[in-house]
Amino acid sequence: MHEAAIPAEHPATHQINTTLAPGAIGPYSQAVRYGQLLFTSGQLGMDASTGAFPPTVEEQTALSLNNVKAIVEAAGSGMEHVIKTTVFLKNMNDFQKVNGVYASYFTEPYPARSAVEVARLPKDGLVEIEVIAVIP
To answer: Which top-rank group of organisms is this from (predicted)?
Structure first.
């Protein structure tokens, strides 16, 4: 059996925060940088300055991705460096609506993506998106 060697030195972990995205509502970070990788927490489709949720899934998707973008940029990266996304939907019937907005935030080669329907999202949001990005 072959075991992978674990390097003696691990990259440092750094917390990433920005006021341009909603603050954490619990004991977690908006994002964590590990080496050249950035892992964001899920971002709801809420306005960062007011905490308000717009009524439609399209508007919430745009705000969610704007919040993701603000965090990714605060870490020194950009949406073009996102390599994986996970989309949590309150209702899978909204997939095409979300996909239409989502497509305007990414270009080819598109990030890998998972999309799942969940029973409930925090604050009764309609969509939540998290990403993994490379920091160049």
So the answer is: Bacteria
